[in-house]
Amino acid sequence: MNILISTLGATWNIIPETIGFINYRENDFYKNHPNLSAINKAREVGFGCEEADELWLIATDKPSVLKGCNHFNSTYEDYLAIKKWNSNCGELVKRVRLWVLDGVADITNENEADQFHDLTLQVVAYAKQQSEGGKIFLSLACGRKTMSADMQDAAYCFGCDAMIHILGEPLKSDLGAVLSQDDCLKTNPLYLGRYKENDAISGYVVPEFEKAEVIKAKPGVLFLDSIRKLQDEAKYFFTSYYLDQENDNHNNFQILYTLPLNKIRQLKETKIGIYEEKQQKELAYLHQLPKTELHCHLGGVLDCNEMIEVAKCYESEINQEKERNNLFAKWCDSFHVDDFKTPTDGWKEWRRQLSVSLNTKAYLINAVMLLKYEDCVASLDELLYGKYLDDSLFRAIDIVPYENLGDLQGSALLRSEESIRRTVRILLKKAERENVMYIEVRCSPLNYVGELNQQQVLQCILEELDNDKNPMRKSLLLIATRHGDLQKIDDSIQLMHDMENESLFKKYFRGFDLAGNEASKSPAELHDKFLDVLKECRNITIHAGETRDEKSIWQAVYYLNAERIGHGLTLKNNPDLINKFLERKIGIEMCPSSNYQIKNFKDSYIPESQDGEVYPLKEYLEKELRVCINTDNPGISRTDFTNELHRAARLTPGGLSLWNMFQLIYNGFLLSFYPYEEKRKMIKEVEQMIGQLIKENKI
Predict the structure, then answer these.
(1) How many Å apart are CA 284 and CA 405, to the nearest integer?
(2) CA-CA distance, 636 to 381, in Å (whole number)?
(3) Which H or E run contains 437?
(4) Assessment of whether the complete model's pTM goes beyond 0.85
(5) DSSP letter at 238?
(6) C-alpha angle 643/647/650, rounded to 5°?
(7) 522 in helix, strand or coil?
(8) Residues 85-115: pLDDT tens digits?
(9) What's the chain's average pLDDT?
(10) What is the mean pLDDT of residues 274-284?
(11) 588, 553 in Cβ contact below 8 A?
(12) Cα torsion for 229, 230, 234, 236, to the nearest 10°?
C-alpha cells in the first residue's frame, strides 16, 4: 500500500494539488499546465509508475469561525470537502484518513508545537509499518511552517520515497478534476527527492492507532522524546568518540565509526562461524567485502582443474618429445589413470626416477600425468588427497606432508614461460572473483628455472602483474627458502640486485619472505645472509611460530627485524614479545585453513576436531594485535579468499563478530607493504567502497 501524508492547515485547497501531482494517470490534474513536460519529468524521477492508494492528513482541532465576511471551516469540514472532491474526481485515492490533535485548535506556543511534532512523527512511523513495504510520499505543502518542519524531520528519521511541495497562490475552493489554465499559472508542484531511513532511529515502539478514518489523538510528547533521545545518543557517541583523547587507537575502518550506535552494536554482536546451516549466507556477506591477500605462495595456488589447465601449456613440447624419444612416447601411450596409484616414495622421487629411465625432463612427466586426468578430475583429486578429501581428517598432518600435497604444481609444473604466465593469471582471476583489492604474490623464481633463467622467470611474473587490467593493486615478494641449499638465499638476494633497475621490478617489488620448514634453519642462523636486505631497508616478513615455539618468532623480530610474521601461532606463549609486537606494530599473517591442516585446532563445524587446541586469533584480537587473514596455498588447502575469513570464525570458539571481520580486513590493508602514500590512498578508496555498501544496506 502506498500512502501520501500531508498536514492540513487553514485551507484544504492545496490537498487536491498534491494528490493531482502523484495520481495523474487516469485524469491529469495538471494537463493544462504550461510546464507540464517538467512536471512529468519530476513525476518520472520521483514516483515512476507508483500512485498513492491512501491519503493521510494530520491537523489541529480547528473549529468553525466567522471573521468578517469570511467563513473558515472546521478541520472536520475541510476533511469532508476533500473527501467530496476526491469522490467527484472518480476516487483518485481509495481512502482518506484524518488524525486530529484533540483539543489543540492551533499552534500558538512551544508546547503545542512539540505536541504536533510528536503526532506527525507517530503517524509517519505508523505509515511505514502499515504500508508493508509500499511507498511513503510526504508533502510539505499545507499548514504552518512548523508543520512543514515536522514533516521534514519525519523524513530524516523514517525516510520517504518522495518528498513534494506545492508553490504558488491559494486557489479557489470549487476545484474540479483538472486545473484551469488560469489556476495553472498560480501553482507549481515540486519533487524534492527521496530520503533514506536513518539507521540511528531504531528500537522505538511503533505507535498503534484504531482503524477509523477520523482519529482523535491525545496531545503528548512521549514519542517525540524517545526519538530525540535516540538522535542525541547517536550524536553523543560520535562526538565523544572523536574527541576522547584516550581513545585514539581506532582499529577498524573509520567509516564504521560514523555508523549509528545501534548499527555498530549490531556489527559487534552478530557472530558468524557458529551454525553450519548459516554458512552460505555468511559466505555471501563476506564475499562482497573488499579484501587483501598478503600471504599467498604462487607455487601453491592451483587446484586440480587448474593444474591440468597449466599442464596444457606443455602439449606442444610433449608432442615434440614423443617424436624425439621413443621410450617417452611408449610410456605416454601406456599410462592409464585406472592403473595408476600414488607413488609410495613420493611424487618427486617418482618423477626423478622416470626422468632418468626415460631420458626426459621431469616436468614433462608431471605434465603428461596431469593431462591424463583431464576427463576425470575427481580421480586426480582422490589420487592427490586421498583421505584428506575428508575435512575432519585433513588436520594435524604436519608441515612436510602438507607441502608434499603441492608436489604436482610449483617447481614441478612451472618450468616454461607460458606455464608461469598462466598460473599468475589464474591467481589474479581468483583474487578478482573474491573482491581482493590488494594482493602480494610470493614466489621463488629460482625454483622455476627451466627454459628461462631466474631473471626471465621474474620478468614474466612482473609482466603478468602489469598486464592485468583489474584495478586491484599488486605487489611481489621474493621468497628466500631456509631449507635445502642455502646458496639459494644468496641467489635470491642477488636476483634483487640484478633486477633493481628494471622498471617493473621497481614498480612491484616490495620485499622478502623467509619461508620453508622452520626446523631447518633458525632466523638467528640466517642473520648474516640478510644483512644486505636490512641495509637497504627492504620489507621483511618471516614464517615463524607455525611449527616451532615462540623462540622462532623472537629471533625473527630481533635478528631479522621482521615487520610481519607468517602464522605466529605460538606468539601467545610470550607476553613480553606480545607487548613488543604492539609497540612496533608488527603484523601477523594468519592462514586458518593451512594452520588447521598442519596443526591441530578446533573447528566448530567438525566434531572430530574438538580434541584440538584453541586457535589464538581471538586472543590476538582482544590484545589488539594486528592480525590479517590469508590463504597461504589456496590450491593445496582447497580454499579461497572469502572462505579463509569464514574459516577464521569457525576456528574461533563462539565465532567472530562482523566487526571482527572488518578489523581483520582493515589490518590487511594497514599491514600491506604498499608504499606509504599510495597505501593511504588505497585505504580511502576502500572506505568509499564500504560506504557504498552501507548506502545500499548491504552492511
Answers:
(1) 29
(2) 11
(3) strand 436-443
(4) no
(5) H
(6) 140
(7) coil
(8) 999 998 999 999 999 999 999 999 999 999 9
(9) 92
(10) 97
(11) no
(12) 10
